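Hey, I was hoping to borrow your eyes for a little while. I've been staring at a protein lately and its backbone has me curious. You're getting the sequence in one-letter code plus the fold written as tokens. Would you mind checking whether the tokens look sensible for this chain? Here's the protein in full, and shout if anything looks odd to you:
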Amino acid sequence: MTDSTASSSASYAAAGVDTAAGDRAVELMKAAVGRTHGPEVLGGVGGFAGLFDVSFLRDFRRPLLATSTDGVGTKVAIAQALDKHDTIGQDLVGMVVDDIVVVGARPLFMTDYIACGKVVPERIAAIVEGIARACQQTGTALVGGETAEHPGLLAADDYDVAGAAVGAVEADAVLGADRVKDGDVVLALASSGLHSNGFSLVRHILAARGIGFTDHSDDFGGVVGEALLEPTRLYTAPLLRVLQEPSLAGAVHSLSHVTGGGIAANLARVLPVGSWVEVDRSTWSPTPVFRILSGLAGTSLESSEGTWNLGIGMFAVVSPEAADAVAAAISADGIPTWRAGTVSTAARDLTGFEQGAKGVDGGAVRLVGAYAA
């Protein structure tokens, strides 16, 4: 090593960046990442860019690429408080890859980005191993990523995670509002809990009651933070199996991932203008964590319908003839699924309905009735 190289290296270390720790983190995660690779992935881990063979797209009539990007949000604050980092990766994959399947696309590959105050190899590896496990479950290759050390900008134990994925779908198989018809059945697919939305409200509620993430609570069934870290349910594989089942061809018309914005707004985005749905609250009982948090806040469950999923992680709008078969197939894959409403195009007063969302001029949705006990 020359004097100038040694000086440069020493200066970078003095600034708080540990390149050796970054290399160690890569070594720790290599096996987990490699398990997501099929023959389509070229070059392995560590290249400047990930390579994915898409020769199979030549067999498509008109291939379309679908892409999505997202993060985990302030849920990472709970992982940091508990020093438990092996589930947050599944949250990231759920937020990103389950948006890909909404249009009917099969996810192909994903990349991740982790920004941290200090690279702790074991912590970074735990995050990426969680990402890799979830990628395996969704059939997604993890082809690349970046870990960036930002001393002075982030505290030593702080980090944030984000990711992006790409999928493929035949143009004439794209799901969306244009396929939805009067009389279609709205199926609700159960969530595993909070998933990765509304954690700023969660943190506000707990702070107001003086409850810490590491506190033990009988209501939460143990350590508060561990209950809140329940990972996001993954819907991609079960939904793709339904979409690829010959006997159910064309049965699914649109899908909605219930994330930021809550229940009504996300469903409205995948309904055609002029249609409406009343989602019947009596068809399900919100997951206990939502009742506990609402009780702590002294508010109703209904008041958080625009923030939390309240037990519904995904909607499937399907033909009425196939609704029972689709629900049975998804339920058999381990995701409780039930009828929550019916699409109508009949003229009516839409006062009190949520109409469209996030720039989409969609249908109208409102929740009615009382939640099941």
Observations:
- The CA atoms of residues 225 and 346 lie 46 Å apart.
- Confidence is low (pLDDT under 50) at residues 1-8.
